[in-house]
Amino acid sequence: MKIVVLIKQVPDTADERTLDAATGWLNRDAGDNIVDEINERALEVALRVKDGDKSTEVVVLAMGPDEAAKAIRKALSMGADSGIHILDDALAGADATRTAAVLAAALRDTGADVIVAGNESTDGRGGVVPAMVAEHLNLPLVGSLTTLELAPGKVSGERQGESGTLSISAGLPAVVTVTERTAEARFPNFKGILTAKRKPVTTLSLAELEVPATPAHAVIVSHNERPPRVAGTKIVDEGNAGTLLAEYLVENRLV
Amino acid sequence: MENLTEEQQAVVEMVRDFAATALAPHAVQWDEDKYFPMDVLAEAGALGMGGIYVGEEHGGSGLSRTDAVLIFEELAAADPSIAAYISIHNMVAWMVDAFGTDTQRAAWLPGLTAMTELGSYCLTEPGVGSDAGALSTRAVRDGDHYVINGTKQFISGAGSSAWYIVMARTQDTGSHGITAIMVPDGTPGLSFGAEEKKMGWRSQPTRQVVLEDVRVPATNRLGGEGDGFMIAMKGLNGGRVNIGACSLGGGRTAFQKSVAYLKERQAFGGPLIKQQHLLFELADMDTELETARTMLLRAADALENGAPDTVKLCAMAKRVATDAGFHVANQALQLHGGYGYLAEYGLEKIVRDLRVHQILEGSNEIMRLIVGRLAVED
């Protein structure tokens, strides 16, 4: 089986994440950039299939600036076999629509049996790219799985909803996304770290992909700094604190 | 950090992540419960930490001594006791790799490097510590076997290990009459004393190893007859650098906790960090740790390249780093006032754990003896 895992480099959630005051774009130098944890979980899904069947091929695909190579390297050190890096200055600021079109173009020739991604990134949190990729490739989307099983020709799993659990399955090839409830990702071992550099990474530019040219790109209309936290509401007990507290909770729809 | 390669950065990052999730949250509890987490050691083994500088052929990671310093610092930043145990285990695995025959290496290294089989280093005896060349455990050749009698003292991992590398006397020729023999757990006549009650290092067992007419095949001998002391000392060169790195890691955490605490703690109308004498204290602590790091990396480099002054540099680095680690941890406790003395804050554990680093792998007095003798020898 050939599994392609979509990975994205995002600012470490452990660091302070800021927007550039002048442009409104993400300030990538403000902290560490790491493989999105949800993508590591997606990779873990693929690596577990490979643990059980060594003939499984795991490819990671990332679109991003030079530094995204580091995210690919991390995935390779964890056990992926090879990487594809879509690297093109013209893609700076690509929105979800553009990103999905480019990813789909790169995926088209990979011959993937299944494409695994996180359900939404921890930075943008749009959660639409995998569905758009599936649409471009005319594949079923099996989204937001909390458990899943990949068997030859079939993916099945469960999706948690507010009103219950959905058991879903689809024939392969398909696009699958997982939530943070799937298994935690493994650590790369020393051997993995040392061999990662020897694994092949293909770098693709836009010119090498069949993506219709488009002048469309995301623009920042306006941005504001998050307002500073204000002091909370204080209820002074004059014998009626219970009532006031209940009123406050109801008023703010907290109960 | 200083000029780390991409791989070294990735190694450090991984060990830090592993230590932060698998060790740090449990360190205080393991200490209190005197619990030896063998399952977590096996996890560390799966990541390559059982044979850090053991060759790759039989499961080792093939990393350098400098890498080992970086790794032990990170492990000890989370838990000095577990880090130090892993350091001792690595010393044993390396001795097998460096002095074992191909057959021995193929037989023993896969389990040791995976840390599914742990190794204990058995040199010290109840009556012989610093003067290790005078040890009295005896191995007598009997056909294709050795019969070993004696008692080993302060043995880390005893009772839990699969392999005991025992330094035993085969001839009455001082340190030249000592032979290293691998004794597997379960050998008739091999038994263990009660678990020692210790000031620190409580999450790893320390026991006597008692050998009464223990028969092992002569093929379990590591190196030649009479090579044991040399093998034990060569193992210790690396052991000293690694234990120094464990002191550095523990000291670093104590220092970082102190910086955070002094920024937050309010007294005399502001945060304590505004008191200049405390700032100077932090400066000294930081400087001591960086001095230790510099010495450790230099010694590791000498060890890696077989430099002629390796023994001296390893001894110096061990003394500087273990003194620095303990001193910084102890000062950190002082800076935390009464809170530092409470187990909950995890600081007094670091002090207790790091104290023994000044005593073992050759006491710091022996380090000065080594350095002094080398300084005046012709």
Automatic annotation (TrEMBL), chain A:
Q: Name the needed cofactors.
A: FAD
Protein's name according to its UniProt entry: Electron transfer flavoprotein subunit beta
Family recorded in the similarity comment? Belongs to the ETF beta-subunit/FixA family.
Q: Which GO terms describe its molecular function?
A: electron transfer activity
Specify the Electron transfer flavoprotein alpha/beta-subunit N-terminal domain's residue ranges. 23-213
Per UniProt, which keywords does this protein have?
A: Electron transport, Transport
Q: Name one GO cellular component term.
A: cytosol
Relate the protein's function as given in its record: The electron transfer flavoprotein serves as a specific electron acceptor for other dehydrogenases. It transfers the electrons to the main respiratory chain via ETF-ubiquinone oxidoreductase (ETF dehydrogenase).
Q: What interactions and quaternary structure are annotated?
A: Heterodimer of an alpha and a beta subunit.
The record, for CDD domains, names: ETF_beta
UniProtKB/TrEMBL annotation, chain B:
What residue stretches are annotated with the Acyl-CoA dehydrogenase/oxidase C-terminal domain?
226-373
Q: Which Pfam families does the annotation name?
A: Acyl-CoA_dh_1, Acyl-CoA_dh_M, Acyl-CoA_dh_N
Identify the pathway: Amino-acid degradation; L-valine degradation
| Superkingdom of origin organism | Bacteria
- Transmembrane stretches, start-end: none
Q: Which InterPro entries match?
A: Acyl-CoA_DH_CS (IPR006089), Acyl-CoA_Oxase/DH_mid-dom (IPR006091), Acyl-CoA_Oxase/DH_mid-dom_sf (IPR046373), AcylCo_DH-like_C (IPR036250), AcylCo_DH/oxidase_C (IPR009075), AcylCoA_DH/ox_N (IPR013786), AcylCoA_DH/ox_N_sf (IPR037069), AcylCoA_DH/oxidase_NM_dom_sf (IPR009100)
Keyword Hydrolase listed: no
Cofactor dependence is on: FAD
Q: Provide the protein name.
A: Acyl-CoA dehydrogenase
Q: Which organism is it from?
A: Arthrobacter livingstonensis
